[in-house]
Fold this sequence. Notes:
Elements: E1 2-7, H1 11-26, E2 30-35, H2 40-44, E3 49-52, H3 57-63, H4 65-87, E4 93-97, H5 103-109, E5 114-118, H6 141-169, H7 178-183, E6 188-189, H8 213-220, E7 226-229, H9 239-249, E8 254-257, E9 272-275, H10 280-283, E10 289-292, H11 296-305, E11 309-311, H12 318-328, E12 331-333, H13 339-346, H14 349-359, H15 366-379
Parallel strand pairs: 1-2, 1-4, 2-3, 4-5, 5-6, 7-8, 7-10, 8-9, 10-11, 11-12
Helix pairs in contact: 1-15, 3-4, 4-6
Amino acid sequence: xxxxxxxxxxxxxxxxxxxxxxxxxxxxxxxxxxxxxxxxxxxxxxxxxxxxxxxxxxxxxxxxxxxxxxxxxxxxxxxxxxxxxxxxxxxxxxxxxxxxxxxxxxxxxxxxxxxxxxxxxxxxxxxxxxxxxxxxxxxxxxxxxxxxxxxxxxxxxxxxxxxxxxxxxxxxxxxxxxxxxxxxxxxxxxxxxxxxxxxxxxxxxxxxxxxxxxxxxxxxxxxxxxxxxxxxxxxxxxxxxxxxxxxxxxxxxxxxxxxxxxxxxxxxxxxxxxxxxxxxxxxxxxxxxxxxxxxxxxxxxxxxxxxxxxxxxxxxxxxxxxxxxxxxxxxxxxxxxxxxxxxxxxxxxxxxxxxxxxxxxxxxxxxxxxxxxxxxxxxx
Length: 380
């Protein structure tokens, strides 16, 4: 069996589908991944075929999430139909993450099973929560219904003309509600059920890569540091210095991830180190606390590490995960201006104990179970 798996977005959107590809490989099947060209060499280092799709991630980051959506939709939709149409040849199923516009149409025209995957329940329309990008997470159900209605209409206005244009070329009928068409009535929620109720298990990618020698030395030379990282999220030049200032205010050392924002500190000193992409599986459990943006991938990695968190959310699912971190008592959330106070609160003993309690309850075999489920779906 060969499966086409496509996911657009940052590393947190790609790493889980690579985990699924590896789980399929362990069962004797193969996968072809369509992801941003930024990750082609990384995916291929695992022995998985990769077809680049979309622009370089840095171009998307520069535009910002809403700017990218508005300026790149027509080109993106047409490219998705073209690239996924070719990539689906010889495949037995199509798996699409991050609500891609073309994947279901390609599966439909080729008469292949189609699975829509999300990494956060908040992307699934429900009166129990608001749509992504909404900051308050405890709104009345009626308000959530109205917000979802507007979100679905906005999605359809943005994508439907271009998707239906391409569907017509394939002899397919037009769609009305784009979000429900892409997501289906039964999307797979690849998230931890404790961290994100409704999830069926996060897809973790085993990573044997050792930490760099310089980082190992730093970790061994003193008390557990605070880890700061915003992943691929853009941030101002003042962010790195603010991170270090917060750590020093609490008499703590700091590890700062450069990430997509190229965070740096002019004079880090002996109590701070700035790193590139490193193995979170090995690094995060050795941190005293983890400060991050609240993306699904990083929130799951931090929860798995069993360390208290401070979430500094800005958009999409990040407000949801900030809410869940607070609700579970495993950390806090704040703006950059309130970072020191939130860190002080998250470093309390009860937060660390709650974080450890959640970590031991997290199943780590979500990708394997999803691969088995996919094999069963194709075989039925």
